[in-house]
């Protein structure tokens, strides 16, 4: 018995007949390989990571940079200040306070009485695979100090106006703000 393979002639017929299932499989494989998100070791599915008690540090840095830019724009409008550069330092980063469910249990009586408190973070579900904690409040970063470099920084009146403006906007004391002349 002799086997004869006429493969080149059968490929176009095969592709024509099964093009939709083949296309579906290729799209599915592409989506599996391209899916965004962290992947657990040895897993092909994204892992839902739990948020930390405070938000990422880069969010605090972005807030600080945005505040610096806004201050530079505002302070440059002060008469005599000229060009202005601002650098801020953070005392604390942004933090989120999460809603918690508390359950208090009492057991025993008299001298053998004990009491325990169990707290769980409330999780909000969005769709079937996305969960996030319920945030009660968010604390903005606290600033620790400010350095202002201004063309008009040699004039005492301009230094005072720049320091007073930053103090009013950020709640910093005069000892936490330094104003110097730009070279």
Task: Write a structural description.
The protein has 183 residues and is an alpha+beta fold. It has helices at residues 7-34, 57-75, 156-170; strands spanning 84-92, 95-98, 100-107, 114-121, 123-126, 130-133, 135-139, 142-150, 177-181. The chain has a three-stranded mixed β-sheet with strand order 1-8-9, covered by helices on one side. It has a two-stranded antiparallel ribbon with strand order 2-7. Strand 8, helix 3 (156-170) and strand 9 (177-181) form a beta-alpha-beta unit. The longest helix is centred in the N-terminal third of the chain and has 28 residues, at 7-34. The termini are far apart.
Strand order of the largest sheet: 1-8-9
Largest sheet, in brief, is:
3 strands, mixed
Q: What is the helix/strand order?
A: HHEEEEEEEEHE
Give the second-level CATH assignment, the architecture of the largest domain.
2-Layer Sandwich
CATH topology of the largest domain: GMP Synthetase, Chain A, domain 3
CATH homologous superfamily caption of the largest domain: ANL, C-terminal domain
What's the domain count? 3
Oligomer: single chain
Please identify the structural class as seen in this structure: alpha+beta
Provide a count of the helices. 3
For the terminal residues, how far apart are their CA atoms? 96 Å
Percentage of residues assigned to helices: 25-40%
Q: Report strand %.
A: 25-35%
- Radius of gyration, in Å, reads 31 Å
Note poorly predicted spans: 47-56
Please tell me what the overall shape is. Answer: flat
The beta-strand count equals 9
Mean pLDDT level: 78
> Under the CATH scheme, which class of the largest domain?
Alpha Beta
């Amino acid at each position: 018995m002799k086997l004869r393979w006429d493969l080149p002639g059968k490929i176009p017929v095969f592709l024509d007949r099964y093009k939709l299932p083949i296309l579906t499989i290729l799209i599915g494989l592409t989506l599996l390989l391209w899916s965004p998100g962290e992947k657990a070791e040895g897993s092909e599915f994204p892992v839902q990571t739990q948020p930390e008690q405070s938000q990422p540090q880069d969010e605090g840095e972005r807030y600080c940079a945005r505040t610096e830019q806004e201050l530079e724009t505002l302070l440059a409008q002060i008469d005599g200040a000229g060009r202005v550069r601002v650098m801020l330092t953070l005392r604390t980063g942004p933090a989120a306070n999460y809603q918690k469910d508390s359950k208090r249990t009492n057991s025993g009586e008299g001298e053998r009485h004990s009491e325990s408190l169990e707290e769980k973070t409330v999780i909000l579900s969005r769709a079937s695979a996305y969960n996030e904690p319920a945030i009660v409040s968010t604390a903005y970063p606290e600033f620790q100090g400010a350095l202002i470099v201004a063309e008009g920084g040699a004039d005492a009146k301009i230094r005072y106006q720049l320091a007073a403006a930053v103090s009013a906007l950020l709640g910093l004391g005069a000892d936490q703000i330094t104003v110097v002349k730009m070279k």
